[in-house]
Please model this.
Amino acid sequence: MVALTGGMFLSGHTTPRLGIDLAGGTSITLEATADEGNEDAVNATNMETAVSIIERRVNGLGVSEAEVQTQGERNIIVNIPKGTDEQEAREQVGTTAELGFRPVLSYDTAIETEEDSTDDATDEATDDATDEATDEATDEATDEATDEATDEATDEATDEATDSQSMPAPDAATGSGTTANMASFVNDEATDGATDEATDGATDEATDEESSGEEESSDDASDIYTQLENLDCSTEQARLDASRAAAQAEDEAEVVTCDTDGFYKYALGPVAVSGRDVSDANAVFDSQTGGGWIVQMEFNDSGTGKFADITEYLATQYEPMNQFAIVLDGEVVSAPSVSERLGGGRAEISGSFNQESAEELANILKYGALPLNFEEASVSTVSPTLGGEQLRAGLIAGAIGLALVVLYLVMYYRGLSLIAFASLVASAILTYAIMSLLGPAIGFALNLPAVCGAIVAIGITADSFIVYFERIRDEIREGRTLRPAVERAWPRARRTILVSDFVSFLAAAVLFMVTVGKVQGFAFTLGLTTLLDVVVVFLFTKPLMTLLARRRFFASGHPWSGLDPRRLGARSLRAGRRPAPAPSDPKEA
Model:
């Protein structure tokens, strides 16, 4: 009692954590279902992955202290505290995870400390590209119209070079890489176009119209890059907002989003391959080449062709546009680069993986591909006012139940009721302290059924005292004094108490395993209090009874002790003493 109570105050958790039905909020029970022929998709690994995904979605709603946990083999319980839109919460947690492969258009570092070096690199590349384009255009220009066309093309090339400046390309695991300069490639294309126009003798009017069209096209193309520049990935909430917006976008739309760590932000093209086209993914240790941990994935018939086409295109691009991003719920979990066309329905992702990161990526790929869906088994919403009223009603019911038990003990057992009452207080202190500590430790929340379980436990605990007291009384009825009666009654009472508590605990354990939702709170509390009953009876009630048996009030059989031999109908007129045995020898008689 001292250790648990001291730990409760030292940790600062002095009250039990209340469940949704008492504190107010929404509780959603989701049941996992698999498509026909893919029943193995519902397994422990995928369920844990689903929990992490749903937890990210719930956090994206801007709530705190939400609980997402598995229950049994097919159920996930989502408890969302008060102040959350129930409809929005149900839409977020009840949908299947969306996995897709999007080509990378550009990306940037999201860490503020790297902006200075990035700006310097961009300025240097822009100056070089401008000088090169200007020199080549000037050499080829022969008249005023050509000069104007060249100037327009040079400006456009400069803008495109600036917008297309690449950042360090992340590999599949660590997000590290090298810088690739696309300015020369872009400006060569632009300058060649300007030279051709000058050679053909374009007129001023034609040059103006064409330049205007090119500027409009450039503005449309740079819109996604402007979004990338303005995207904030510095905080967790900002990343959640970005990933949520990306997840809600159409597959055909270009999006901007962050990676899972917030180190990089990406501009991504339309979805090229859906996660549904991945048939399998596994983390494998490559011992042959010494490459360490890698992730191998396989595609179905539909995905094989699409993945081959997109990798063939990406292999011809410069960094970072030779990368494809693996996007889960709008968030980039990996962005490997492609060096060749990957046909045959198989692909391999390598990088600075360890076993944990490789298995995590493989599980994400596999989960996004599996036909695992969730159906709402139950949804309940409780207002804080109703929750407070329910808690108050539960506490009143518990107080009434405890008062009735104490009244019965006082009327029937008199002095012995003090031992029973002290034992009930000890059990209550232990239960309260443990519940308070289990909240931050394992996320235990006290709901209304759990309160009912605690009330029922009062009767179970009192039953153990009654068994022991009645065994002591039986010994006194046999004519024994109190101290030997206490010791002789204990072995018989102990067996009965253990059998009774075992049956109660077994019922609680079975109920906990086979039920879903709040009924588990009842089963958990019932099992906990049953275990505490054994502890209290063995380590508190029995020793206390032994000590009090030495007191004159109980040892003498006082009428208010509850152990009066006359009232109990003992065989001897003297308190608890057997009559002397009759002598066998007549002379002695």
